[in-house]
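Need residues for this backbone.
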């Protein structure tokens, strides 16, 4: 396959509800749609997932553009390939910039699937017809607001509730949740809000029968996570720590966690995400698909990835209407009884909603080879 044109469209979309974690509040999401056109005029789509401030990893929407335009897209000029597995090797000369790489590689995966008239899930090796859609609830104005949201999602059949926590919004909140919902499948995400000095405080999380505690410590703290995991019964899940297959090997062999959150953007694309999945499956470590407040294209890629057999835990893949007034894809992603159908149509299985894209477009760049 050969690429003949790449389009970069920058959109800024207002979140339906502001999303607050222990570090940041996201009110609007700026991102690039990456459209890759091949010699047969077929088009594949990817989406950048970095935020506009580097609180999650070092990447931002601005560094994504820089990496794409200046370093990654030029590597595809005149490059002929048989399979998208070759792309991450081609990109290896550029260090990190994982979310920029993932957006472009993802578009090529979509294009590859469309060329073969197969679904993206199918070409990745997906085995599920539907995936379990968990919900992630940000820090709310009050505990009452949070309980109200949990009740609504539980009634809608959500298979697990995740709540974001920070110091001062943790044990007190969990106590109230468990008082109202003693058996609901529940997990928490700290986004690195703690450190090893707070180990006695963290031990108390074991009282609340949590499926897992996600990323209690900083991303580089593999050792401290391993020390904590030995002292608590709640499984630790790593998110921000896992940038690659090697990070996954390190975390599992060191005992830093018992569960891995895979995000395509954080690990540099679908090829690496699949490698991590395959390794975890072999090691009997459950994985689930994390979310980056994606619009529809990124969400569609997540659905395809989460159809792989090792994704045994519900992911942070909500329906479009949970995040946006109008999504950039049609049909929108719909959650029914806590489940999302994996599309059978070719590629990502969704068309673009050109009207929503036009209404939120900031700028467009076209690179022809
Ligand atoms: Mg997380």
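Answer:
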């Amino acid at each position: 396959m050969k690429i003949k044109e790449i389009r970069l469209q920058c959109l800024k979309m207002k979140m339906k509800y502001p999303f607050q974690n222990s570090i940041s509040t996201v009110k609007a999401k700026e991102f690039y749609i990456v459209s890759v056109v091949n010699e047969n005029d077929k088009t594949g789509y990817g989406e950048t997932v970095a935020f506009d401030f580097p609180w999650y990893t070092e990447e931002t929407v601005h560094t994504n553009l820089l990496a794409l335009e200046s370093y990654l897209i030029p590597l595809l000029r005149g490059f002929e390939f048989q399979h998208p597995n070759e792309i991450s090797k081609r990109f290896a000369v550029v260090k990190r910039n994982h979310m920029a790489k993932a957006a472009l590689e993802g578009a090529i995966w979509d294009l590859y699937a469309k060329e073969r008239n197969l679904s993206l899930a199918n070409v990745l090796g997906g085995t599920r017809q539907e995936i379990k859609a968990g919900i992630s609830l940000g820090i709310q104005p009050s505990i009452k607001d949070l309980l109200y949201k949990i009740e609504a999602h539980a009634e809608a059949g959500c298979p697990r509730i995740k709540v974001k926590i920070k110091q001062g919004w943790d044990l007190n909140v969990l106590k109230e949740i468990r008082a109202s919902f003693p058996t609901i499948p529940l997990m928490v995400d700290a986004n690195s809000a703690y450190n090893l000095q707070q180990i006695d405080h963290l031990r108390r999380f074991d009282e609340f029968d949590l499926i897992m505690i996600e990323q209690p410590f900083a991303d580089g703290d593999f050792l401290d996570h391993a020390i904590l995991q030995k002292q608590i019964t709640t499984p630790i899940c790593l998110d921000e720590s896992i940038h690659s297959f090697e990070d996954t090997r390190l975390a599992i062999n060191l005992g830093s966690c018992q569960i891995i959150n895979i995000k395509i953007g954080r690990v540099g694309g679908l090829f690496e995400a699949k490698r991590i999945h395959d390794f975890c499956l072999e090691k009997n470590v459950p994985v689930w698909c994390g979310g980056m407040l994606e619009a529809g294209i990124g969400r569609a890629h997540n659905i395809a990835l989460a159809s792989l057999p090792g994704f045994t835990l519900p992911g942070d893949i909500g329906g479009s209407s949970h995040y946006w007034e109008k999504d950039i894809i049609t049909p929108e992603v719909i959650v029914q009884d806590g489940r999302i159908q994996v599309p059978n149509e070719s590629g990502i299985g969704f068309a673009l909603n050109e009207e929503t894209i036009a209404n939120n477009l900031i700028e467009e760049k076209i690179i022809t080879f």
